[in-house]
Amino acid sequence: MRTAFISLSFLLAGSLMVPAIAHTPASKKKVATTTQKGKILPMKEYIDQLMAKMTLQEKIGQLNLMVAGDITTGGALNTQVGGDIAKGNMGGVFNIKGLDKIKALQDIAIKNSRLGIPLLVGMDVIHGYETMFPIPLALSCSWDTEAMKKVGEVSAKEASAAGINWTYSPMVDIALDARWGRISEGNGEDPYLSGVMGAALTQGYQGADMRTEEILRADRIMACLKHFALYGAVESGKEYNTVDMSRIRMMNQYLPPYEAVVKAGVGSVMSSFNLIDYTPATANHWMMTDVLRKQWGFKGFVVTDYASIAEILNHGTAKDLKEASEQALLAGTDMDMCSNAFVKHLEQSVAEGKVTEEDINTACRRILEAKYKLGLFSNPYRYCNAKRNKTDIYSAENRQIARDVAAETFVLLKNEGNLLPLKKQGKIALIGPLADTRNNIAGTWSVAQAPEKYTTIKEAMEKALDGKATLLYAQGSNIWRDRELQKNGEQGKSIAWGDEVKMKNEALQIAKEADVIVCAMGETADMSGECASRTNLEMPDVQQELLAELAKTGKPVVLLNFAGRPTVLSWEKEHIPAIMNVWFGGSEVGDALCDVIFGDKVPSGKLTTSMPKTTGQEPLYYNHQNTGRPVPDDNQKFAKFASNCLDVSNGPLYPFGYGLSYTTFEYGDLKLSSHEVNMDDWKITATINVKNTGSRDADEIVQLYIRDMVASISRPVKELKGFQRIHLAAGESREICFDITPEMLKFYNAELKHVIEPGDFQIMVGGNSKEVKTQNLTVKKHP
Ligand code: NOJ
Q: Which residues form the Fibronectin type III-like domain (predicted)?
């Protein structure tokens, strides 16, 4: 018997018309008749009926996910993956671009497999599909949750028009160590901000809470929260390294953003590569089941990160792949990405009683539920819409959104003498290896990028200055002096390699002729991201040497720092008058940069990671504990037998929350509606007047921090608890008000209970984590 799932779903007056499940062999005629008949059965009934028809191996097949490989549309059935799909050994495929190819695989699932169960089709749509947005770390610097939602919506719109129904995003791993390359993929160092931004992105992708039975719109896709959990805490920032962390720290600092995304209704979760309590995350029952499901109420399915089941053998906690599969399944892992372990071994494990058929049913049901909510049982081809494929990808509308969002992510670090914005006049020299590259602007994890369609910085500037000013251009340098080092960071996205002396002379020549020099320098796209750890975060050798020579010309220099992480800019801060951190701004970065450099828009991004003075300061983060022998940040004199270093003062070069504007903001005094409250009965507001004291209308990000002065465990020196992105016209001032809620004062204590302890707190509000206005609040025990 074969169940028919081929049908068309369509929205009629807001209600989804879907077919009833058919219990007869599929034929096109039959399916068409079924389509007219009305609604699909409720999810439980539908899946009960479907699972009743499935063999044990077919259920296990649903738990298998593989890379599709390079298939041709006509020959898909003859590939390994095509054959496995036909056998019912595959629940989904991923990272394949091209509607025809995806449709060819979906065809096999529908027409050649016994039960015709449609495939999940995943992709790392991390910060856009073809319309690329800035890398996630940059996006977080917008502190703009509406923008995050838009990013999710546009990404989903494009991906779903290209056959994709599942993205491996958001990534909310807290990363405190900038040496780790994947700091680029998350929202920085703060748990609250990361959770808020991850939740907004998830809402954008899905448009629905997947804890309900709601069927997603056809232009939305399922999100996948990753990497669960603690991946960002790898020792010394070295990729795939050991993680060892107390539960108190997990609960207070690392797990909150994952929880926030679960509460936003994310449909799936990806387990991480690392150890948690010395057990691989993929096999960690406490994390995957007790915390994720029992404590937080997660209802979707858990997929492994790549071959993390096979990697359990390298961790040394299982003797073979069969045992690793059993551990993973029993811990709460539902889907095996790329280890081919579940399909190979679980049937045998059931026979031996190592796992039960019920364990497999549970995992299988979770995956079928996701397919149901994606509307795939109503219409397996709802993501294979050829018309949308032509209209919805890299559209003018999507590109405009990406351009606007990108402009919000640049962080202006220094602007001596208001060098920026530049006037569109005279001669501008654009210099640097990142100025005229098409394939490096989108940044890391740009699986579906279409660089041939993108505009380089140079091209965008030429267009912006056309008829008004002269643009002179020279590449100026390689990325590194050492060709091999440069290749490590290129990964196929090459930067033209040239003769060092010749390139430098060309740059100095145009610098002499120019009125102002703009440098596009820093990291290549793949000097951050997966497996791109660095031990020295300074500007690479040849680039810094060139920058120094350019500075010596006496001409004003603007540095556009390309980076997938906080880099060390100590020398640059001393010698370069204007520095803007531009990260990797996505496909529209050229135009977005021109908008800001030439003053059509005002920069508003603020750092979501502390920028270090030296690499040796890492891991560096603002919400640290005080220590028993604290030394204030920037204490110029070394203090013996205190918590500081011989060679560099404490504190960052640029703090968390920092970023300049073309205008200035003045903060008035902070007022609390009450300085003393009772434990279970309060309503307090913190109010501050913020004034735009400059001459440009602009956005400001007002930040609320709290410090718990004395508690049963040591608490951080401050923690972000709220923020508001506001717009103020030049000269305008506004009262900004934050509710201080009991939730903001809670923390996990030594018993891992989420509590408020009475006592003294500092409430702080300001434009960055260092410059704040402070008031004291006392929470009294109820008499
Ligand atoms: C490995 C990466 O860690 C993860 O982020 C990604 O989603 C998967 N590979 C799939 O490509």
A: 700-769
306 lines ligand 1 (CB under 6 A): yes
Name the residue among 120, 121, 82, 111 with its Cα closest to residue 4. 111
Q: CA 505 → CA 431, 432, 462, 495, 500, distances in Å?
A: 12, 13, 22, 19, 9
Residues identified as active-site: 305
- Is the torsion defined by CA of 361, 364, 370, 372 positive or negative? negative
The pair phi, psi for residue 173, each rounded to 5°, is -65, 125
Tell me the helix, strand and coil percentages in the chain, rounded to 5.
35, 20, 45
The ligand 1 atom nearest the CA atom of 95: 11
Is any atom of ligand 1 closer than 6 Å to the C-beta of 124? yes
CA-nearest residue for atom 7, ligand 1, is 168
Q: Tell me, what's the pLDDT at 37?
A: 57
Identify which of 121, 182, 306 to mutate to test ligand 1's pocket (most ligand atoms within 8 A of the CB).
306
What is the Cα 661 distance to its own chain's centre? 25
627 versus 3: the higher-pLDDT residue is 627
What pLDDT does 185 receive? 98
CB burial of 749-778 (b: ≥16 within 10 Å; e: otherwise) equals beeeeeebbbbebbbbbbbbbbebeebebe
> For residue 447, which atom of ligand 1 is closest to its CA?
11
Residue 779 above 60 pLDDT? yes
Taking CA atoms, 139 is separated from 63, 175, 380, 504, 607, in Å, by 33, 15, 33, 33, 10
The answer to whether residue 14 scores a pLDDT higher than 80 is no
Whether 311 is in the pocket of ligand 1, judged by its Cβ within 6 Å, is: no
Ligand 1 and 286: CB distance under 6 A: no
DSSP sequence for 446-489: -TT--GGGPPPHHHHHHHHHTTT-EEEEE----S-SSHHHHHHT
Q: Ligand 1 centre from 337 Cα, in Å?
A: 9
Q: Of the candidates 134, 229, 222, which has an alpha carbon nearest to the alpha carbon of residue 185?
A: 134
Q: Whose CA is nearest to atom 9 of ligand 1?
A: 306
Domains of the chain (ranges, CATH numbers): 48-390 (3.20.20.300), 410-604 (3.40.50.1700), 665-780 (2.60.40.10)
Query: Is the beta carbon of 357 within 6 A of some atom in ligand 1?
Result: no
Q: Which has the closest alpha carbon to 125: 91, 171, 79, 93? A: 171
